[in-house]
Amino acid sequence: MITVFGSINMDLIATTERLPKPGETVAGNGFATAAGGKGANQALAARRAGRYVHMAGAVGKDAFAAEALALLDDAGTDLSLIKHVDGPTGTALILVGGDGENMIAVVPGANGQVTPTDAETAIGRMNEGDILMLQLEVPAAAVERALSAARAKGVTSILNLAPLIPDAPRLGRLADIVIANETEFERLAGQEGMDAAAREAALVRLHAETGQTLIVTLGGDGVIAIRDGAISRAQGLKIEPVDTVGAGDTFCGYFAASLDDGLDFVSALRRAAVAGSLACLKAGAQPSIPLSEEVADRI
């Protein structure tokens, strides 16, 4: 079983020919809303990958709450660990340029009311050998408690080191598996401007220090990882991206689901990379997450 402990948002998405520069206003050419939040996105990805998933987090008592949970509910995700709190549901304001690149501002809302007690409740429902997936869009104290409780119970923890909050390097040391993009990994390693050789050397160094499994996503260049002393690589698909929002979350959810399904590490990386590529072919975070059959066809 997989439990995802994290954020639940409504995404408000505007599309433009190009992203604005600081202080600049550009004309938009489209607008949509979609359920999002890194936690909810990853939970839906793991569920669409075919695994049983609990989502733990919080929504507000507003008009966005039901819509933010709709796709998770439709997919059969267990929502019994989600609490409803006073105030607004978390919101993400997203600009997507014509080349598929994006800019995002996240307003935490109810996500800011997720507590260490919520973490203990979620882990209390888990068993040894289950998988816990976390991100950093809920308070750091809650994430830290979840990671500590998971380790004490023999639950495998996967931390997506995003967004890049000040506590990210410290919290990253507490997880069994860390997933980061290039920028996030540089912060974890304490080294900026890495080329490919420097990145691989940093992976080897950090792995030797911590024993953790470390995974770095590289966009169109695939993924590089280290586990049990061995470097692994995997490629996604060659695509023309429509919208990259949610691609990283799709990778994380499919990776966790693949491990939970018993796939070997390299096969799990490949499946997750292909799923992340497919998520770039549609607009929106959750609507773009592919079904397991789609990923299998492309593999």
UniProtKB/TrEMBL annotation:
Pathway linked to the protein: Carbohydrate metabolism; D-ribose degradation; D-ribose 5-phosphate from beta-D-ribopyranose: step 2/2
Compartments where found: Cytoplasm
One of the record's GO molecular function terms: ribokinase activity
Ligand binding (K(+)): D243, V245, A279, K282, G284, S288
GN (gene name): rbsK
Described purpose of this protein according to its UniProt entry: Catalyzes the phosphorylation of ribose at O-5 in a reaction requiring ATP and magnesium. The resulting D-ribose-5-phosphate can then be used either for sythesis of nucleotides, histidine, and tryptophan, or as a component of the pentose phosphate pathway.
EC number from the UniProt entry: 2.7.1.15
Lineage: Bacteria, Pseudomonadati, Pseudomonadota, Alphaproteobacteria, Hyphomicrobiales
Main location: cytoplasm
InterPro entries: PfkB_dom, Ribo/fructo_kinase, Ribokinase, Ribokinase-like
Subunit structure: Homodimer.
Residues that, per the record, bind ATP: N181, T217, L218, G219, G220, D221, G222, G248, D249
Catalytic function, reaction form: D-ribose + ATP = D-ribose 5-phosphate + ADP + H(+)
Cofactor binding note of this UniProt entry: Requires a divalent cation, most likely magnesium in vivo, as an electrophilic catalyst to aid phosphoryl group transfer. It is the chelate of the metal and the nucleotide that is the actual substrate.
Active-site residues, as the UniProt record annotates them: D249
Keyword annotations: ATP-binding, Carbohydrate metabolism, Cytoplasm, Kinase, Magnesium, Metal-binding, Nucleotide-binding, Potassium, Transferase
Family note: Belongs to the carbohydrate kinase PfkB family. Ribokinase subfamily.
Protein name: Ribokinase
Ligand binding (substrate): N9, M10, D11, G37, K38, G39, A40, N41, E137, D249
Activity modulation notes: Activated by a monovalent cation that binds near, but not in, the active site. The most likely occupant of the site in vivo is potassium. Ion binding induces a conformational change that may alter substrate affinity.
Carbohydrate kinase PfkB domain boundaries: 2-290
Cofactors: Mg(2+)
